[in-house]
Amino acid sequence: MNHRTARVGRALLSVGVAVLVLAATGTPAVAASYDEYGKPELVPTVQGSNVVAPGETTTLTVRLENRGTAITHGEGSVDRLAAVVDSQGVTPGTATSTTVSVASGDAPLDVRSGKQSVGSISPRSGGALSLELDVDEGAQPGTYELPAVIEYQYVHRISAGDDEFFVVRKDVQVEKQITVRIDESFRLSVVDVTGENLRDGEDGTVSVTVRNAGSEAGTDVNLRLIGSDQLQPRTNAVSLGRLAPGE
């Protein structure tokens, strides 16, 4: 009788140990983690008018806007993620060390502006750059796309747990287009100026040769000389009538 009781007691003891081991080796609690994704989308746009004329040298202002967004995914408090962002000095979705190089492409003009630094551009904000253009005199009217190479770095991902974190940065080079339009225009160019008998206190003659260097004809064209302390014109203006391109 006592012998059977001892065997039952040992069996119960074995079961109890197995339950304790199972409880001790169960799945541990998972630390909270957060993922922050943000990719900039930089779009260049001419501010104001993008219209230029043949033979013109002008400067356009271009705004580089960041239309990207940052998306957060995670569980638990975001305090850890905020601490990582503050300590590392990063803002998800921001383009940093941004530079822009613009070329003429197929447009009949020269881009005088070199590679320009725009700095950091956070989401839904923008930076500005100046675009100096020298349009060919014989440029054909039309709409042209200027290729703009944009280089920048951004924080692709931030992951933060209770005990560790990591920040992934990426370097990006993209090509965008800046649209400009060349319109027909009338542009009077002075070809030559000569003078005869231009002496102090005497009457003389000034001859001026002009040409329509634009791509559009001019009508009712009048040429007027502006006087100075040394020279006062007796004729206020000369009518040239209609001047076709090249005349």
Helix content: 10-25%
Oligomeric category: single chain
CATH topology of the largest domain, by name, is Immunoglobulin-like
Strand content: over 45%
Give the number of DSSP strands. Answer: 15
The H-level CATH homologous superfamily of the largest domain, spelled out, is Immunoglobulins
Secondary-structure element order, as H and E? HEEEEEHEEEEEEEEEE
Mean pLDDT: 78
Main pleated-sheet profile: 7 strands, mixed
Tally of alpha and pi helices: 2
Protein name: COG1361 S-layer family protein
Provide an overview of this structure:
The protein is mainly beta and 247 residues long. Strands 1, 3, 5, 6, 8, 10 and 11 form a seven-stranded mixed β-sheet that branches. A four-stranded antiparallel β-sheet has the order 2-4-9-7, with no helix packed on it. A two-stranded antiparallel ribbon has the order 12-13. The longest helix is centred in the N-terminal third of the chain and has 23 residues, at 2-24. The radius of gyration is 38 Å and the shape is elongated. β12 (188-196) and β13 (205-212) form a beta hairpin. The termini are far apart. It has two helices and 15 strands. The chain has two domains: 34-182, Immunoglobulins (Immunoglobulin-like), CATH 2.60.40; 188-243, no CATH class. This is COG1361 S-layer family protein.
